Amino acid sequence: MQSADANVDVLIRGAGAVGSSLALALSAQGLSVALLGREEAPRGPDVRTYALNASAVSLLRELRVWDALPPEAIAPVYDMWVAGDAPGARLDFSAWQQGVSELAFIVDAGALDEQLAAALRFAPRVTRVREPVSARLTALCEGRDSASRQARGVEFAAKAYGHHGVAARLASDQPHQGVARQWFRAPDVLALLPFNRPEPGASHGLVWSVPAERAEALLAMPPEDFERELNDATQGSAGRLQLGSERAAWPLMLAAASEVSGEGWVLLGDAAHLVHPLAGQGLNLGLADVACLARVLAAREPWRGLGDARLLRRFARERYLPNLAMGQLTDALQRLFASDAGLVREARNRGLTALNHLPPLKRWLTQRALGL
């Protein structure tokens, strides 16, 4: 990296996956970038996994990050099935049926963060700074609790679900065979994502969305009791599951910023929008923001400045509908499957079964999730 400069093209506040990817993308355009954020290992074990679609993988490959990841940090998803809370209510997706090689990739979040940090160390126009510096454009990538967003008076209308996402790494006595599994069980949603740690080919990343009180109880349980609850919920469909890590949890919400750009500033990733994790689209949306902003800045007129409000509105307009649509879709699914009303339960389970027999609609949904 070059030495710190008091005047750069872009200041990026937030050095997570979105901010780091943006720094690499803009550096590749020849822009000078100051990256404000801590480069440190997470406290305690990192149990996070990312579900990345084809568009996100394409961006990371362009940034020369994807192919540098260790093979054990990546697990392809070839098939996915979604089960309702009634016998026979099930929806299946197959990469083969969709005409793609994989539906998604499950990635070790810690490994991706490490590789992004390694790439940044060799980026010639990126400087890590400890304090804000003067810049033509400030990109806010600080996550859901962005202080810079709040300082600019941007409202962040949040709808708390009253649920927490419980995450952990799991080992199974059966190979996962690249199958992702999800159960909609009012009021909770349980997902098992194929993974290669701690056991190559026989591990899963767990994301279990449950009411806050239930999450507290699950975190407090002895490991053997937690495993019993988990195996009762999955009914052995993924084999006998055991904890392979500590457990972690975070509150779930739907949120969107009232504005995502202005004169000299722009919001990306979780600082701009939050969605329920049931579709695994959080980081995909953030990386789509990165790709869009990089494209808009690269195509600007020679006389237009990087922080020009009209230029940044092009980014805001392009990202508005995709981010809104994904937020509304995940919110509708959460409300639909959280309800325990008899008529709602019957309708949603019938709907799953009917959708499973409508290949064109399944293909459309898959293309949206893949970012195609």
TrEMBL record:
Pfam families: FAD_binding_3 (PF01494). Belongs to the UbiH/COQ6 family. This is FAD-dependent monooxygenase. Its cofactor is FAD. Keywords: FAD, Flavoprotein, Monooxygenase, Oxidoreductase. InterPro entries: FAD-bd, FAD/NAD-bd_sf, Ubi_Hdrlase_CS, UbiH/COQ6, UbiH/COQ6_monooxygenase. The keyword DNA repair does not apply. It comes from the Bacteria. Gene3D superfamilies: D-Amino Acid Oxidase, subunit A, domain 2, FAD/NAD(P)-binding domain. Pathway: Cofactor biosynthesis; ubiquinone biosynthesis. PROSITE patterns: UBIH. Residues 8-73, 126-319 form the FAD-binding domain. GO terms for molecular function: monooxygenase activity.
